[in-house]
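Hi everyone, sorry if this is the wrong subforum. Our group has a chain we'd like a structural model of before ordering constructs, and none of us has done structure prediction before. Sequence below.
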Amino acid sequence: MLLFLVSCLSFLLVSQSLILKQKNQPPKFNSRMWVFLKSPHRFFILLSRKRKILNRFFFFFPSIKKIQTINTTTKEERKEEAAHKEEFSLLDLPDLPLDAILEKLSPFELCSMARVCSSLKLSCTSDHLWRKQMEKKWGGVIGDVAHNEWRSQLITASKRPHFSTERSGKFQLFLELFMGKKSDIKKSDSRKYLLQENSVMAFYLALETGKFWFPAQVFNRQVQNGHVGFMLSCYDAQLCYDSTTDNFIARYRAQGRSMIEEGIEWDRIRAPSVNTPPNSLHISDCLDQIKPGDHIEIQWRKNKEFPFGWWYGVVEHLESCNGNEFNCQCHITDAVSLEFKQYSRASRWRRTVISRKDHTVIGNEIDGFYGGIRKLCNKQEIAKWKQLWPNCTLE
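Answer:
Right subforum, don't worry. Here is the predicted structure as tokens:
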């Protein structure tokens, strides 16, 4: 720019000097002097035109860039959309990988997935998935007796009039209570959910929502209410699960009336150890095998109007035996000494003797009645009883 100004200045000075020399002689048209003087004017006109052209070009150039950017972005988006269309969905997986994924879900998540579409409903409500959920949470407290009672209730309910409407409404209620909100089951779809009434999922939801009272056994019945006489015992009861507290409500039958106990925790419940009803004598099949040192459970009840409960004890040496293992004959004698060490030695409940060969219900109205015996071979069962051991000796 500086060079341009210097050249223009020099040109003006030269032209001015020439004009002064020939001021009395004006230049002729098309003469050399005329052309020389006219050339700066043409130069500036051409320069201004070029600037306009350049401005127009550079003004248009950004718009070209924008068009190229838009075209590039559109192509990239199209590629991404094409790649997205080529991706596999969850339903495209084979059965084994899909089941492996669904097994990781919680029961609540399985119920949510079952409401996505009909294909996932079939997968998420399958018995083998819910059987694992049952074993995981309810395996320790639900036994064969509870399963049989659930089936018998279904059979009884199926014989009632208006069974389909009643049962489908109950199953919808199960889902609503379990999901915590209104389910989207339509009346037209009620038959589809009715087919699941005899499924493992329906059984699980009935337990989880507290709609099914199931048979089980409760350790240390009513001890929390001050009944310490039931320490180290296990009684049959009908239980209902309370999901808000994660505890149970137990209903015991005695003398023709029911007694309720609330706030029972999971570690105080087990599935029935035998299929013998609580009012019947258990047929013992271990009397020929038990010997001193064995852990046992024996039926006991206060009187004949009460149901039997299972009480923990151990087999001890007879009073005539000195306890020497080399000279001990207790394992072959007819008499078997049972000891309940939670009671003091002076207590009448401390020891009792039964017969191997002619064992039946023995006892009286004062000391109570003893029934059948089962030998404890499982270390976990023995450890469970020891966990419930009282802090002090009972009288």
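For your construct planning: Residues 101-208 form one domain. Residues 18-25, 57-67, 164-171, 179-195 have pLDDT under 50 and may be disordered.
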